[in-house]
Amino acid sequence: MKAFFILKNMKLMLNILLLILCSFLLSSDSIFQKIDTIIINGNKNTKDYIIKREILHPIYSPLDSLDMAKDIDRLYNLGIFSTVDINVENNIYNINVVESFAILPDLVIDYNENLKKWSYGLGLAHINFLGLNQNLYVGGAFIGEKWFAVSLYNPWLYGDHISLRTMLYNRFSDNPFYNFSFNETYFLAESGFYSGLNNKFQFGLSYYKNIKHTIHELLLLLSNEKDLYKYLNLEFIYQYDTRDVYKDPLKGHLFEVSTGYSKSLINSNSDISHLSLSFSKFFLLESKYLHEPVFSYQLYTLLKFPNFDQLPIHEYEYLGGEDFIRGYSSFSDEYPNNFDKDIEVSNVIYNHLELQSTILKKRDYGRIEFGVDGLLFINSGIGSKKINSFSLNNLLVGYGFGFKFFITGPPPISLTFGFNPYGQNYTHFSD
User: How many CB atoms neighbour CB 296 within 10 A?
Assistant: First the structure.
């Protein structure tokens, strides 16, 4: 009899649990609600298929919040929307976007910290040309360092992200380290494709010409330096990219291999090859005091062939400055008398650690997104003039803080203040 009552109570408890489970499932729209329709709202210029081809949430399947979040990131990464939101109602996948201004004036105000010179000019960027997410740019600087550029980029022409980029660029400037001016011309045709969502391949063919002139007639170029260089360049880039938001990642990583060969069209003994490897990782941290703090690090290696003393000046690298270790200048004569490190090199091993947190959250201010982040950083690196001559005795370390300004269209603009162990500090303004 006792066993009978136990079985009867267990059966009652199972029925109650089953009833609770059914009630929970019936009240959960995300489980039983299947997506059967996609509706796009807010795109006045962008073609529907440009948006739909980024959507990977399966149709006629239950709502998956992770897939929906990834769809939002992919649409935001197009760079043409100031706001992206997706919600589901009555089995409808509602995609709501706010288009940024398609045509953006580019007021060129640039500071070249090597030349210690400001440049001013004007440009025009169409970031959604023909509503096809194509980027058309025309512009230049006409005061200071003079340059002119025309480019057209279609990131997804057909197939699986098969892209096409063309660019024509000309610059007339002075070399800040040596006594000559130069006039360089660059033309690029580049294409690429995806394999899956994370594997990206790019192939480039370009033409480069550099004409050098001594500033003073009595000053000659270095003995191995020529007054004219012409190259036909071949380049290959592979990326494995899992970042969520390209412009300002909260998580994921980026691995890149870039290799190139420059065939001299004048002297067969002047060919140049390069190989670079880069790995960046981003972590979203938890904090009671910081908003969306992200810790990131990067490891980067650049190797060039032949050795430094056989390279033209325009192939030299400088460890100090905005490109690498921001606690230093690119000019070796600005360092203390006891400074014996090699700043001017051709090969680089570099890394940085960075903590970034939101100060002003990115918001849509009438089709223009704007936000500000603060950052702390430590940079370190080693340079060498021969591939087999890297030495820890040449290690440089810099550190500092700064700000990143996010605006719809261009990459983030950074203002950083770098310091080094010698008591020096440098300000860098870059994009």
Answer: 18
